[in-house]
Write a structure and sequence with these properties.
8-stranded parallel sheet; 15 helices; alpha/beta
């Protein structure tokens, strides 16, 4: 495999409804090497009037400390993809444009977007060419191996990306028909990485820092894109760094977890209505608090909280109680069974 960088990179993979600037900032604080915005619908952006809607404005938020941030563009109409790429470039806000051909969601695929393009490689190539010709920003591609096992098109599309001068590719090691279930085909990723002329980032199946490093070794990729594992463990990027230099990985105790929730809520309130942002914190609390004594009562109480002040007072009181009882650690017996498939 060609040597592209001296060090592998570990980036935050895009997740619709989750990877807003507020959550990305948490991951960057823990050492993520890069990230991608939520999906930007090309048909909507390409036809948008001069003033962006609130939804678009929120998607376009970027904090100063975000490194290597790509705008994720999704669509299947070449002309609209090109126009959207031009508009994103003119904003002078992003470091690259990432074309999404990997999202397997039914609503996305039903519109002919995301991994639906894997069924029509000719159209996929038209989209890739249109975006490449419309921008002077680096262009990236995210895709799956294929629509199903009988239609593996990733090698073909990655060769096309190389010919068009794309900067990199992120490859999820499952087909669309697998969704997020079943084993990740590390052998297929490894074969593609061995022949690729541009960096390939492996994606899929990572649940912890050890998984990420093992995945890197098994695929020979230039880096790893980490998705849903980062939702439960945004500190996974710091854990990876520690493992790579032989440092012990710390247990993430109650003060760190509660502090993260408070920080995320404050950031989210900066670009979302307060009530909406606070409501969104319930799902992150469900990710970060399980295993702590009494976390169920906190989750229940959050249903009645609508303000940032109320959110902070609830968490401060909860943490004070744990501190008084000297009970700040995670209790494995209190952890619920996993509810997310591997990423």
């Amino acid at each position: 495999m060609a040597q592209y960088t001296q060090e592998p990179t570990f980036v935050l993979a895009p997740m619709d409804g989750m990877t807003r600037a507020s959550f990305r900032s948490i991951c960057f604080d823990y050492g993520a090497d890069g990230a991608t915005t939520e999906m930007i619908q090309s048909l909507a952006l390409g036809r948008a009037k001069k003033r962006l809607s609130e939804t678009f404005a929120e998607t376009m938020v970027r904090y100063p400390d975000e490194r290597n941030l790509a705008a994720q563009l999704i669509g299947s109409v070449p002309a609209m993809m090109a126009e959207s790429a031009r508009r994103l470039t003119a904003m002078n806000r992003f470091d690259a444009i990432d074309i999404n051909m990997g999202c397997p969601a039914r609503t996305v695929v039903g519109s002919g977007n995301g991994s639906a393009l894997l069924k029509t490689p000719e159209r996929a190539l038209e989209v890739m060419r249109a975006v490449r010709e419309a921008t002077d920003l680096p262009v990236q591609l995210k895709l799956r191996l294929g629509w199903d096992e009988e239609h593996i098109v990733a090698p073909e599309l990655i060769r096309a990306a190389q010919a068009l001068g794309f900067r990199s590719v992120t490859l999820h090691g499952r087909t669309r028909s697998q969704m997020y279930k079943g084993p990740v085909n590390t052998a297929a990723i490894r074969e593609i990485c061995a022949s690729a002329e541009i960096p390939v980032y492996a994606n899929g199946g990572v649940t912890c820092a050890g998984d990420a490093l093992r995945f890197l070794r098994e695929t020979g990729a230039s880096g790893v894109a980490i998705g849903r594992a980062a939702l439960r463990q945004p500190w996974i990027f710091d854990d990876i760094r520690r493992l790579r230099v032989g440092e012990p990985v710390p247990e993430r105790l109650a003060p760190e977890r509660v502090g993260l929730l408070k920080k995320l809520a404050a950031l989210a309130c900066g670009h979302r209505p307060e009530k909406v942002a606070v409501s969104e914190m319930r799902k992150f609390a469900l990710f970060w608090l399980p295993g702590l004594t009494g976390y169920g009562e906190v989750l229940a109480a959050l249903n009645g909280i609508t303000t940032l002040d109320g959110f902070n007072r609830l968490l401060d009181g909860y943490l004070d109680g744990l501190s008084r009882d000297n009970d700040l650690a995670i209790h494995p017996e209190l952890l619920p069974p996993p509810t997310l498939d591997t990423v």
